[in-house]
Amino acid sequence: MAILVSGASLRGALGAQAREIVGKALGPASMRQGVYPHSWWDVYSALRDAADAEPLITVVENAHVTEVGQDDDAAWTRLADGSVWTGDVLLGADGYRSVVRRWVDSARPVADYAGYVVWLGQSDLPEYYLERAGGPDFFSGEDDMLAVYPLIDRDGGVTRYGWGWFDPHHTSLFRRIGAIDGAEVKYTPRVDAVPGEVYDEMIRTAETRWPEPWRTGVVEAFRARDVVATPITEYLPHRVANGRIGVLGDAAHAQTPMTGAGFEEAVADAVALAEALDGVDAEQGLERYETARLAGMRSRVSAGQSFSRSFAGI
């Protein structure tokens, strides 16, 4: 996966210390140049370092949230071990299978399967192509598509590229292994959950379908099983706040990666939340957040749904 940091206005969303940490990790041009994305892992690692350095943030790992709720005085969450955490506000940034969303909109708790899978990988650019890498490119197959996007290194160079192979053909496989149930995506399967013959099939197809220099990297990744097959989900929100509880990011508005804006929208959510909660009580602040963001969320998801329906033939 790739994240365009500058497109998300991340610089304005971070405090001085966090900007310094993230800028050092991703490179001095990371929040200024608007052409090349970074790899997801690089961005996550930089932001995690910034969170760990902030004394007002406590990161608790391996805590499985099973239930959330609220009363007149506080919001709370219960973990699998039985412990309960309480606070003035509870914000769920817990992804497309959000537990928190079930409270925010109990009538529509589940994101929908978009009808296709994206195989995601990352490969090295061949040496002869290092000076020729441009912006994202898209290649149409018979009824599938390959998206490629050069990834910027910390020193500003481009030596790697990420790619996503949009595939509408293997829904039945993912239903069979339990990753998709009805219209709901249950999980992204482990590499070894996908039968070997499927990898072999993808290799044969790639060898005849995609142009160089991308073809070699895609084929090598499938041979090495260094790919992630992600069933795509979409969630069009009707509400993103309920009392003291709210959702943001994919929990609020899961969208196809074709929008190229999942991270950008999540950063916009965080900024809007900070502004909306400033100086007011929790419920009023979350009402302001929903007013500020809901129309934009719906517009972005709807645009992606138009692509998905066309691509998946729905």
Give an account of the 3D structure.
It is a single chain. The chain is α+β, with helices and mostly antiparallel strands. Helices cover 36% and strands 23% of the residues. The protein contains 10 helices and 15 strands. The strands form 5 sheets. Strands 8-9-10-7-13 form a 5-stranded antiparallel sheet. Strands 3-4-5 form a 3-stranded antiparallel sheet, with no helix packed on it. A 3-stranded mixed sheet has the order 6-15-14. β9 (145-152) and β10 (158-167) form a beta hairpin. α6 runs antiparallel to α7 (214-223) and α9 (262-277) packs antiparallel against α10. The longest helix is centred in the C-terminal third of the chain and has 31 residues, at 282-312.
Quick description:
The chain is α+β, with helices and mostly antiparallel strands and 314 residues long. Helix content is 36%, strand content 23%.
Based on secondary structure, the structural category is alpha+beta
Average pLDDT confidence is 92
Order of helices and strands: EHHEHEEEEHEEEEHEEHHEEEHHH
Looking across the biggest beta sheet, what order are the strands in? Answer: 8-9-10-7-13
Query: Main beta sheet, described?
Result: 5 strands, antiparallel
Q: Provide the helix percentage.
A: 25-40%
The tally of helices reads 10
The proportion of residues in beta strands is 15-25%
Ends: how far apart? Answer: 25 Å
Count of individual beta strands: 15
User: Which residues form runs of ≥5 with pLDDT under 50?
Assistant: none
**How large, in whole angstroms, is the Cα Rg?**
20 Å
Q: How would the global form be characterised?
A: globular
